[in-house]
Amino acid sequence: MRHQRMLVPVLALVLVMVPATSAQAQGEEVPRGPTFAARALQALIDGIQFGVIIAITSVGLSLIFGTIHLINFAHGEFVTIGATFAFFLNVSPAGPGWHLIPAALAAVVFGALLGGAVDRGIWRPLRARGTGLINMFIVTIGLSLLLRHVVLVLYGTRPASYAQYDIQSTIDLGPAGITPRDLTVTLLAVLVLLGVAALLQKTRIGTAVRAVSANRDLAEASGIDVQRVVLFVWMLGGGLAALGGVFFGLVEIVTWDMGFKLLLLMFAGVILGGLGSAYGAMVGSLVIGIVAQMSTLWFPVDLQYAWALLVLILVLLVRPQGILGRAERVG
């Protein structure tokens, strides 16, 4: 017993010293984590990817507000429906088992048709009856709850991934890295946003959308079919939201409430960029995405959305109309 008591502190000392001295004796360098510059570059890449996904989903939200001044609280559910509809076509045993690319295209078409059906079935009759914007906003909340719980019943609560492009090796970009899937999603999102910008600037329907957003009464007096333009905006917003949902589900995971979680950031991007401005929604969403990811360099990940919203507040204190919004005179 006496010898055993003497061995205890000796063994403890050996266990403490051996790991520290073995690496030094062999001349090996102690492995170090990535530098701050490498982590900052990685956060910037992740922020750009996150920002362009938010931008795709928020453009329709901004255009809807610009044309009929409605804050569509159910827009997040269009994101979820797009992601889960593609999941049904791609993964679900009850679905056809399509590859993700045609499944995503079908989800975009379904999202556009859903947006058009919601406008024709709900919002156009309410506008014809002269329903106030506050009442219509309350209706969007009820529609959001209805659609979210329909998705919950049909999809379930278990998070899942698509069948393709799930696990991939990383492409090294100097000290940072990105998977081919994430790089493709980012590039496709940028191309889609450029396409939307070209649509608004170079086509007749795009010119009509901008005219209705600028002055609805004047546009109607000049011969523009405002109801047709509004229907187009709802279909465009629904299709873009569905595509953003597929992209978000691809780089993250598909859940029944993913659109609702993204909705606050969509509103932040729209408000930061300037209410009613599609280009402002793009810029504001990109800023929100970058700030959210860059904040993780100093603060916990759980607070990344909070810092993005803090930047929104600071910018609005300096420029109340948003980054690309137009200042309006009150009174």
From TrEMBL:
Signal peptide residue numbers: 1-25
Superkingdom field: Bacteria
Lipid bilayer topology: Multi-pass membrane protein
Pfam families associated with the record: BPD_transp_2
Record-annotated membrane-spanning stretches: 43-66, 73-91, 97-118, 130-155, 183-200, 229-251, 263-291, 303-322
Cellular component, GO annotation: plasma membrane
Keyword ATP-binding included in the entry's annotation: no
InterPro entries to which the protein is assigned, alphabetical: ABC_transp_permease (IPR001851), BCAA_transport_permease (IPR052157)
UniProt entry keywords in alphabetical sequence: Amino-acid transport, Cell inner membrane, Cell membrane, Membrane, Signal, Transmembrane, Transmembrane helix, Transport
A single BP term in Gene Ontology: L-isoleucine import across plasma membrane
Keyword Transport assigned: yes
GO molecular function: L-isoleucine transmembrane transporter activity; L-leucine transmembrane transporter activity; L-phenylalanine transmembrane transporter activity; L-valine transmembrane transporter activity
Localization in the cell: Cell membrane
Family affiliation: Belongs to the binding-protein-dependent transport system permease family. LivHM subfamily.
PANTHER family for this protein: BRANCHED-CHAIN AMINO ACID TRANSPORT SYSTEM PERMEASE PROTEIN LIVH, HIGH-AFFINITY BRANCHED-CHAIN AMINO ACID TRANSPORT SYSTEM PERMEASE PROTEIN LIVH
The protein's name in its UniProt record: Branched-chain amino acid ABC transporter permease
